[in-house]
Amino acid sequence: MKIKPKIALIFSVFALLIISCEDKTDSNSAPSDITLSANTVKENQPALTTVGSFSVTDQDTDDKHTFELTNDSEGSFVIIGSALKTGKPLDYESAQEHEITVLVSDSDNSSFSKSFKVTVTDEGEIFVNKISGNISANTTWKKDDQNILVGQTFVQSGVTLTIEAGTTIFSESDDGNGLAPALIVEQGGKLIAKGTASQPITFTSTLDMDADGQALLPLRGTWGGLIILGRAPISVTGGVANVEGVEGKPYGGNDPEDNSGVLEYVRVWYGGRSIGQDNEINGITLAGVGRGTVVKYCEVAYNLDDGFEMFGGTVDLKYCSVIGVGDDAYDVDQGYQGRGQFLFAKVLKDDGNRAYEMDNKTNGNLDSSPRSHPVFYNATLVGPGGDAVSNNDQMARLREGLGGEFGNHIVYNGKEYGVRNSDNGSETVTQDLASVTSLYPDYLFWSENNVVHKMGAALFKGFASDFKAKDVDTGISIDSYLPKSGGSAFEDVDTVPSDGFFEQVNFKGAFGSNDWLSTWSILNK
Q1: In the prediction, which pLDDT does 311 show?
Q2: Secondary structure (DSSP) of 454-471
Q3: CA angle 174–177–182, rounded 5-degree value
């Protein structure tokens, strides 16, 4: 009688061993836990702000996992990939805490569910500034506000718009009528946008990621751009024209000293969408803008059309950068007579046209007056090389009666020609500056000390056969734009005009040893 329990015990252990062995041969283990890296978010952040990321505990370390929200707190949250993001701006006063439920599934459809609480922190009331229409009184856009362009916005005559350092202005891609929002400063209006290297002012898109978690930026043409209209001379008949794409907004006049404000450490990214029928705009349009306006430390990146375009006027540019735009980096026409120093352009191989496209012809006249005559020193123009699209045929195109003065340039890595000249008027094209200065503005001077290097075809096209350039390696590349210290960029440096604007330096190109883009450019984002 006492033997039976022992036999039963043996059978029980044997059965347990069988069950244990069967468990160990199971081909898949379900996820056993989910963790969230962070569970706090500031109130009033835009949709798709990242809260944290999920990770899974699973014995099967090679399993692939997908996450979904079975409770998204009434659309307050979404999951993209493994990232938890806000589904909309959250308000602390409405709810300080949200409960969500996450379901994770592995490749065998085994799943695990867990609930989390996400805390919304009170950052004080953030003013959501949706901007459109006329600005008719002096206004300040603050860095702690959420500034969103939702339509064409006009700074009217006699009005000053001030933008605090560190402010980001987001823009929707559409105003509801199929056109992109843009900021337009009218004649007599002023824009005071003074950022700093550590707190630049940024115009950018509201786009971030699509529903599949794919980054949408960088992307050209996601909103409009910045347009400034001044009262400086232009070569259009009558001296006044209406800017393209904006109905009834004139530019041009007779005041070369006209002052439209200050742009300093201003970044305009991802713009160029149409603001008028079949009219993509430039990142920064300066139309009839006078030299009383300050434009320095400004960047246009990934614009669908040109970077900077100067329609006449006399405005000066200093420490400016254009990266990866879909057309020309710097475009000059309609009698522009401004100055520029320390200018950088990077043309990408996928699109883009030229670093410079500059002309004078207005109303069919190659000698229209005032003649376009930019005076640009210390520029670095970097091209995409031989595998670029077909329209990258020259790095700089100077044409249609253009005058001008170009010294201390480095032109590098063009697909075909370095510099092309065509369709001249009566201007004198020369490399002997001393012989033509008395003819201003009826001459085009290209210094023989300028570096033109690594072109797919000739250095020049359309110039006299005796035109010269320094075809030397300065040490720059498509990824590194500072020249080699003590190298050829520091030899045979041109003397700049002595007029109070230009700085005499000991190097060619936009950079010596100081990388003035390092803290604020999209290149370092």
Answers
A1: 98
A2: --SS-SEESS-TT---B-
A3: 45
- Pairing status of strand 241-242 against strand 250-251: antiparallel
Handedness of CA 175, 177, 183, 187 (dihedral sign): negative
Cα–Cα separations (whole angstroms), residue 46 to 173, 280, 436: 15, 27, 57
CA 290 to chain centre: 24
Tell me what pLDDT residue 204 has. Answer: 95
Rounded CA separation 67/56 (Å): 10
Which of 511, 498, 184 has the alpha carbon at shortest distance from 345? 511
Q: Rounded to the nearest 5°, which phi and psi values hold at 469?
A: -155, 165
| Helix, strand or coil, per DSSP, at residue 17 | helix
Domain 33-121 adopts which CATH fold? Immunoglobulin-like (2.60.40)
3-state secondary structure 85-133: EECCCCCCCCCCEEEEEEEEECCCCCEEEEEEEEEEECCCCCCEEEEEE
- Say if residues 505 and 521 touch (Cβ distance below 8 Å): no
Provide the token pair at 109. Answer: 């459809």
- pLDDT at residue 212, as a whole number: 58
**What sign results for the dihedral spanned by CA atoms 188, 328, 169, 223?**
positive
State the pLDDT at residue 433: 98
Burial 450-470 (b: 16+ CB within 10 A, else e): bbbbbbbeebbbbbeeebebb
Going from the first residue of the chain to its last (525 residues), give the mean pLDDT of each consecutive group of 10, the final group possibly shorter: 40 39 58 90 92 89 91 96 94 93 92 95 77 95 94 96 97 89 98 98 84 70 96 98 89 99 98 76 97 99 96 99 96 99 94 91 97 99 85 89 99 95 98 98 99 96 97 96 97 98 99 97 92
The pLDDT assigned to 215 comes to 58
Residue count of the chain, please give it: 525
Q: Alpha-carbon torsion 478, 388, 329, 322, what sign?
A: negative
The answer to whether the CB of 34 falls within 8 A of the CB of 112 is: yes
Give the span between the Cα atoms of 356 and 345, in whole angstroms: 9
Q: How far is CA 438 from CA 33, 434, 441, in A?
A: 81, 8, 9
φ and ψ of 8, to 5 deg: -60, -40
Q: Which tokens in the block code for residue 107?
A: 């490749």
The CA distance from 313 to 42, in Å, is 45
Name the E strands within 315-370: 317-323, 330-333, 339-346, 356-359
For the chain, which residues make up each domain, given as ranges? 33-121, 128-407+514-524
DSSP β-bridge partners for residue 111: 105
